[in-house]
Amino acid sequence: MEYQYPIEHHWSTEEIIDVIQFYQSIERAYEKGIEREEFMKSYRRFKEIVPGKADERNLCNDFEEMSGYSAFRTVKAAKETEAGNPVKMKK
Length: 91
Known about the structure:
Radius of gyration: 12 Å
Oligomer: single chain
Low-confidence stretches: none
Order of helices and strands: HEHHHE
């Protein structure tokens, strides 16, 4: 897909890479599935970088607008999935 990931320009290079990995884990959940623990690890790192709910909501809404993939629904599904099982989303 051709779109830009929503990022903040004050983040460090490492933080940008980690946030992009979170977005890519959402994409994998929709496209082929992702192991729950791998997804939750990327989400926890995302929350270290973006601790505020409003900022998280804005970035995730921007990502969904561009990609069509819902971060909120994916996080909710991952939290409801038992450990050891994959998270698989449908559009």
